[in-house]
Amino acid sequence: MGKLIALLVILSLSALITGERIVNCYWGTWANYRSGNGKFDVSNIDANLCTHLSYSFFGINDNGEIQSLDTWLDYDLGFINQAIGLKSQNHNLKVLAVVGGWNEGSAKYSSMAGDWNKRQNFINSALNLLRNHGFDGLDLDWEYPNQRGGKWEDRSNFVTLLREIKEAFAPYGYELGIAVGAGESIASSSYEIANIAQQVNFINVMTYDFAMASDGQTGFNAPQWAIENSINYWLNQGAPANKLVLGIGLYGRTFQLSDPSQNWPGAPCRGVGGAGPFTGDGGYLGYNEICLNNWQTVFDNNNAAPYAFSGDQWVSFDNVLSVQWKMDFALSKNLAGAMVWSIETDDFRGHCGESYPLLKTINRKLRW
């Protein structure tokens, strides 16, 4: 009986640990403007598939204050309030406000982080945003300190900024997360990793975009070896495993082949692939677009990732199998969980099978 009780305790603890893993769903709210089956709004979100919903994006002004980037969508259409309302469907859901993103650049954030007054403007506006709307925390996605118009002092200033935010958030219990560049080349230039890790609840590691058409050849968006190298680098630099959240891209990077008969990884390309019917951007296809294409698909075991091609079009992406491999790695390293960029490009309507196949795969591995 004693052995049985001990086994039940172990199983219960295992379930508890598994249940606490993060599944952070970034949501690009501009998907509301997509046409047809690509249109995505709050009604399309299954709140039970996420522990965190990251509402993207807010920006900042030249004084460092947080501002809406789409007031009509955020306020007139009521997207913020509707997002907060999802907590009625999942009482444990945390809804975070995400500030930054690629389009915001780095210069304004560099200026803000290096100026005490602007930092206070940022922090006070963050507190107002969270309090006034019922957000549970903030995700700061500065892409990237000391790059894209930044300066070397950004590295230490970023630590200072995060420490001051943490102190301001403490009385209210707000969570603080960051999204960071994954690979060593970006991370070593942008972050004092051990120091920033002390200031935040979790770190969303953007383990994707490892190959682009600008490289001049086809390549994998998120090969397993690159993900493992990136996470191991963050761990070795002092980031605790229980704060690292592994990024999964629910999209693919596309390439136009220079010669359609050369359609393997590393083949020459002449530029980005054609735009998809939903996302509408060259070089990028959502998984909900890729799965509808009747392209020849190959799973590359060396990279633990699929690619597909048709004519001169080539795409690298993640599917259920490659996501399973990535989750097994996250579990083997005892990481905090996984995040997705972004929820609206999964097959959320289930046109290729079950709805949200990639996000559900993550949940089956980490939470269910």
UniProtKB/TrEMBL annotation:
Cellular component GO terms, alphabetical: extracellular region
Single GO term (MF): chitinase activity
Keyword annotations of the record: Glycosidase, Hydrolase, Signal
Classification via Gene3D superfamilies: 3.10.50.10, Glycosidases
Domain GH18: 21-368
N-terminal signal peptide: 1-19
Coiled coil regions, renumbered to chain: none
Pfam families linked: Glyco_hydro_18 (PF00704)
Gene Ontology biological process: carbohydrate metabolic process; chitin catabolic process
InterPro entries reported for this sequence: Chitinase_II/V-like_cat (IPR011583), Chitinase_insertion_sf (IPR029070), GH (IPR017853), Glyco_hydro18_cat (IPR001223), Glyco_hydro_18_chit_AS (IPR001579), Glycosyl_Hydrlase_18 (IPR050314)
Family from the record: Belongs to the glycosyl hydrolase 18 family.
Protein name: GH18 domain-containing protein
